[in-house]
Amino acid sequence: MTEARSNARPPSPTAGDLPRPALAAALVLAVVAAFGLHTLFVSGPAMREAAGAELVRLIADEDRDVCGQFGMRPGTAQFTACSGELAIVRQKQSDRDHAAAAGIL
Questions:
Q1: Is residue 9 pLDDT above 70, yes or no?
Q2: 20: which residues sit within 8 A by CB, 6+ positions away?
Q3: Can you give the residue range of the structural domain that contains 105?
């Protein structure tokens, strides 16, 4: 007679042995991770650059509108001085906002 070995290892699991829900969840996780990495490394910098350009355009529009209300036209020394003063006001407001967020004020 032949002897049965009791210490034989069971076969290791393969991809075909995984249950379908686990395989589907792993696939969904891989797709989400791929999109996250794409956003982080490819789309993120472009979106930040576009947002920065939009902010610069909005500030220029505000400067033109506010200084224009006082009769200062773009390209003049008065307009440049007015725009500089508005930049100082914006910076002070930003400093106050950061201080308030930090709980200092």
A1: no
A2: none
A3: 40-105
